[in-house]
Amino acid sequence: MELEKIKQCKNEVQKIYEQFDASHDWQHIERVMKNAKTILGQEAADAFIIELAVLLHDVSDPKYKKPGEDLEQEILGRLELSTEQRQQIQDVIASVSFKGGNGKRAESIEAKIVQDADRLDAIGAIGIARAFAYGGAKGRKLYDWNEKARTEMTEQEYRQAQTSSVTHFYEKLLLLKDQMTTETGKQMAEERHEFMLSFLKQLQTETDGNK
């Protein structure tokens, strides 16, 4: 029964993610699922809750959500879950988003695993690719070495500012390594973090941001 519900959910959400830009498309979901299962291999947690939360975590992302639309609630309603399961999934999803540093703290082990899995996909080589894919979709500059990264901001300020893609590294991506909550997530984040630092150093060398 659980496998059938996961399959049903997958069929519904794949169509939705295929409409998003490359930074949050179906491949992103596949990578986050792989990360989550890697972490799950070292943790005792509810795999069913984790898989459904991964599949649903971006369908109602404020960056893509249309006015009056609530795809997350609609799909959850069609899956015939228990009230407890539905609440667990919603709690996990609520803790995934960074929100300019204002995100909800992950309390359950399921929330910690999904949060780490999603944030791992925001760093390293794939994180670099996604940052520039999203920036390109929004018409943002690749870099602006004179732009100052913000250290404090509201969720609204974080979402609305048209900062360059490189500035986003300093406002979010380089902060994620130290925000991992599982031991496996922390280990996986180390190499990815170092790769981003190397990339930024090389980018500065090749542009007018030499430091």
TrEMBL record:
SUPFAM superfamilies: HD-domain/PDEase-like. Pfam families: HD. Residues 25-123 form the HD domain. InterPro entries: HD/PDEase_dom (IPR003607), HD_domain (IPR006674). PROSITE patterns: HD (PS51831). Gene3D superfamilies: 1.10.3210.50. Transmembrane segments: none annotated. It comes from the Bacteria. This is HD domain-containing protein.
